[in-house]
Every structure is written in C-alpha cells, then in structure tokens.
Amino acid sequence: MTNRQYVWLEWQLTGGAWAKIVIRNVRTGQTTTEEVGTTSGTSTFRLSWDALDSEGLEVPDGDYTWTITTTTVDGTPLDFTASGSFRLARQPAAHDLNANGTFDLLQRTRDGRLYRTDSTYFSGALELYAYRQQYMGPGWQVYDRIEAVGDLGGSTVSDLLARDSAGVLWLYAGNGKGGFYSRIKVGPGWQVYSRITGGSDLTGDGKTDLLAADKAGVLWLHPGTGDATRPFSARKRLGAGWGVYNDITAVGNIAGGPAGDLLARDTAGVLWSYLGNGDGTLAPRTRVGGGWSTYSHLIAAGDVSKDGRPDLLAIHSNGNGYLYRGTGNWKTPLLSAQTASTTYNLTFGFDLNI
Question: For the whole model, what pTM was predicted?
C-alpha cells in the first residue's frame, strides 16, 4: 500500500530538449527543482511530481507556483520561460504541524529543548528519522504537561497545549510551517487534572475537544469552540472511576462510531476503548487486550496509513516505536503492531513524547 499524492504537469513546446521546472510553495517559500526531457518523438515536457521535498518528505499543502525554462540537447538556453500556479490539497492530519498531511512527533529533552520529527508512511511502514528533526526552541521545562491536541484554533494544522507549574494552561497555535505563534493564555486552575488528552471531536460539531481526568478520578469534557482566543466552552462531567487508568488517549474515530473515541490503559496494563456517542458522551468500555504496560507512551497519530481511520503510535520502554492501525471495528479497534522504522531510540535523551 502506498500513500503518495502526484501532481501531473504537462507542457507542449515547439523546441527544446530539456526543461527545468521550479515549484514554489507560496506560504513557506520552499522550492523544489525538477528536470525533465521531452517525451520520445514529441515536443511534450511531462512531469509527474510526487509532491516530495529533497529529503523525501511530503511537502505542505496550499498554493504553488511553477516556472519552466528550456535548453537544447547541448545545454544552450532557449529564449523561453513560462509560469503558472496550482493548489495542492491534502486532508488535514492530527498532530501535523507543517500542513503536509503526515504525523509529527514532538519530544522534549531534559533541559527543556523541544524537537519535532516529521514522518512518512510508505509501502506499509511508518518512518521516523533523526535527520528529519527540527529544533523548536528552548525553555519548555517550565511546563509539567504538554499535549498535542489537533486543531483547536480553527486552522488546518495541529496546535499545542502546555500547562505550567502554577496550573495555568497555554495554547500554542500552529503556524503551518512546523512551529507556533505566540502563546495564548487559556486560564488557571488546570493543576486539578492528572491526565489531559485532545485531538478528537466527541460532540459531533466538527471541532476538536479536550478530555481531562482530575485527581479524584472524575473525567471531564471541555468542548472545543474553534476559537484560539477562547478554545473551550464550559466543562461537562462525564463520570467517576477514571483513577484506575494511568494513561488516556483521544485517538479519533478508530472504532467506526459516530464520533471520536478514547483509549484508556489501566494500572494492570489492560487497554480499554470507549466509543464516542457523538453527543459528548462515551459508550461502555470494550477490552482491547493486555500487556500494554510495556509502553511508556501511547500517542494518537491520526490517519498515518491514509486508509480513512486514525492510528495509534506506541513507544516501548526500550525506545522502539510500534504503529497500531485503526480498523473501524468497535470489537477489535486495532490491528497487530507494525514496527516503526527509526534511526534513533525514541526515548533516549528525552523526558517527554507528546
């Protein structure tokens, strides 16, 4: 299975043998250069662009321009140039900070430096490579909780929530270039929560919501508004008894129901799924399976495999990553684990995988 998106471009000219095509993203300024020859026996220049950059990563969506110049067989420039534009549309992805439709892994070092690693999924494999890391900046050690929450601010890219040691929650809206705009204060009092997770639409209104379990084991829903300056409406109590879980993850609609779902791991290492009802409530839990205590982090990865269903990235305590693809079946919501291809230990040197 592949998930490549191709852009087909074709020019009919009366001369020339080689053409250089420069493709530029209007928003980011990122350029890609391609060289093609005329089709055999014709004067047609045809480019099948795989929408990848020089490092093999998917390029961002949005408006693009193209410019073509031609030369003869011996490299003599011809007095010809042309330009135009097109739009590349990608399905917005959860935890996608640079709008290229793929999952981004955020990690913080012990001294507070934040890094983003872009990924690809090609021919059945999730790839996360160290050379694709982008340094996001220092100073993140002031936060005791950081959560990638999908699109809270009404854009097409993922945002970030960060809670400081005083319990104040801050929103970092994604800028579509892999980084964030200046932080926005959401409000104080968030120290009452031991678990916070976001990225799913549980109310069925098309907006990303937040779930939080307090220290007394009560689960609360913070409905999203789509407004970065006021991202949540008044919270709603969903129920007690959530103190038995040491991890909760809003994974999107993995089970084929009407809304986003929730995965919860108990202290015995058993994973449970809660199907979203579409009105902000959750159906009774379904047992997924045991043995999940071997994972240090369970991360909602969005639709990594591009099959229309969200997936789960699980990071083992030894630093290895495993991808569990969603099935759309509430009885068995996850397929068997696939090893994620990496060139580094996902936990070495980091104290947080977001």
Answer: 0.87
